Amino acid sequence: YAWLLAILVPVPQAVPKYVDTRGDGLLLHIEGIGVGDHLETGVVIWSDTVEPIFGLEGSGFDGTREAIYRLVHPDDRERLRQAVDRCIRSGMDLDLEHRILRPDDSIRWVANRARIRRRDHGSRHLIGTVLDITERKEAETALRESEERLQLALSAAHMGTLDSNLVNNVMVWSDSVATIFGILPAEFEGTREGLYRRIDDRDREQVREYVRSCIARGRDISVEYRVRRPSGEERWVAMTGRPLQDESGVTDRIVGTIMDITERKEAERQLQENNRLLEEAAQAERESNAELKRRE
User: Whole-model pTM?
Assistant: First the structure.
């Protein structure tokens, strides 16, 4: 990570190695500090520590606000321009993350934080920081893509995840669980009771008691039950869960999965029905053979 400390000051002959701005309520004793943009003149000065962030060397920066905008990714440029203008007009702090485009066409992410300061003689200055957050953004992107792949896999398997906080009675489940229950994600109340009330009346209390027993004993949860969708359709699900304990050994959370097993249950029912029919046919054949033997 690299830090860029932006100090908007009246244009000096040279950037000081140490800057003390106690009069503006800010004390900076940072070696190499050096970005200055006098709001009235638009002239910008920065130090050598700034240039590596933007991929510049030597005199690659011409010292204007427009030169900074040109270094911003085209898709983010206008957004930054509007944010800076709003900060200058209203005095509101600037807080923005955006991309920059280096001369070698590589893209980096930076976080801008800045605020307006007024010096004793009345001139205004923008004081702030810019942090290279590329690694953080890449990690966030990788995590988001991983979660998307997980959701696709769960959806393909007709499965979803749940996370239940037993202390504050907050339950979070994935969108695929909502699909299994035949509701929109926003329709889930986010509590255990919200889950229980969607269980078929024939299974609800049994499931509730079973889960309570598993929590009390710290045992894994594995249960199958019927749910009733708002449309009236009945579905079968398999719920698994693992109770987690806090530092004191008290179970305070359950993480698990819910899987739609309706097709499996239907296949099992059909298999049982076929077995029943085969047994009836076999029994009828045995009785027929016995009758034939009696007649002989």
Answer: 0.51
